[in-house]
């Protein structure tokens, strides 16, 4: 049964504060209305991937959607919709999280703000439960808040992360809200401390020793086991005193 979105009160103030200047917290705003060259469109598409996926590998990219966006067959909002409904996003965020956490991810990535407490999580989770993920994504992208903030051709971004009255801004969404829930991070072995030692030992290619460098031979020598062989010590019971001690004749 389809139910309407439950009512909830807005409790997060940052996204509701008007910007003081022309730009929102000095954020880089990517809009298809003023991006015309291939390089500018590449920057816009990469910004959309960073906002939705945080990082897209080559096999995660939606090449058909990219082509349609470059040819102006779809809007940025349609491109964002395609990324949210892609196999990569579904596997990385929906399949490995509860509905509440999935809602939190989508609200922060699509609407550019933190959720308004547990009440909004429950309200949107009910939409996911009754209308499915597609119905939930459609309602987010068709909402008045999204249209007013980003319209058809602006890539979503984290709004009002820094306020003039605060020394430190809010932590970026991708850092504050990891992709996997704690259960799946445990299954995958995260966090791992061994990588920190690897980073400390990292040396750039220019600083790596070349052929003939003495440090290479020192490292090779340190890996060799060059223990001196200990002399064999027979027991006293096995010694033949008469045969081993010379007979000193006068």
TrEMBL record:
Gene3D superfamilies: Phycobilisome linker domain (1.10.3130.20). It is found in: Endomembrane system. One of its GO terms (cellular component) is phycobilisome. Residues 10-187 form the PBS-linker domain. Signal peptide: none annotated. It comes from the Bacteria. It holds the Pfam family PBS_linker_poly. This is Phycobilisome rod-core linker polypeptide. It comes from Lyngbya confervoides BDU141951.
């Amino acid at each position: 049964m389809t139910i309407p979105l439950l009512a909830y009160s807005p409790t997060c103030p940052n996204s509701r504060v008007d910007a003081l200047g022309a730009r929102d917290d000095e954020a880089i705003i990517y809009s298809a209305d003023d991006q015309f060259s291939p390089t500018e469109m590449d920057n816009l598409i990469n910004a959309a991937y960073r906002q939705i996926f945080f990082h897209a590998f080559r096999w995660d990219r939606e090449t058909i959607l990219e082509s349609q966006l470059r040819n102006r067959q779809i809007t940025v909002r349609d491109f964002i919709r395609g990324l949210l409904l892609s196999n990569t996003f579904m596997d990385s965020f929906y399949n490995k999280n509860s509905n509440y956490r999935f809602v939190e991810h989508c609200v922060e990535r699509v609407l550019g703000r933190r959720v308004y407490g547990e009440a909004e999580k429950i309200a949107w989770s009910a939409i996911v439960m009754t209308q499915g993920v597609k119905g939930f994504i459609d309602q987010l992208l068709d909402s008045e808040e999204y249209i007013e903030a980003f319209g058809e051709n602006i890539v979503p971004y984290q709004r009002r992360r820094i306020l003039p009255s605060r020394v430190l801004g809010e932590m970026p969404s991708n850092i504050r809200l990891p992709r996997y829930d704690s259960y799946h991070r445990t299954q995958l072995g995260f966090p791992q401390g061994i990588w920190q030692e690897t980073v400390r030992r990292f040396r750039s290619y220019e600083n790596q020793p070349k052929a003939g460098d003495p440090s290479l031979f020192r490292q090779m020598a340190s890996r060799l086991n060059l223990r001196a062989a200990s002399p064999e010590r027979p027991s006293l019971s096995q010694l033949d005193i008469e045969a081993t001690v010379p007979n000193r004749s006068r």
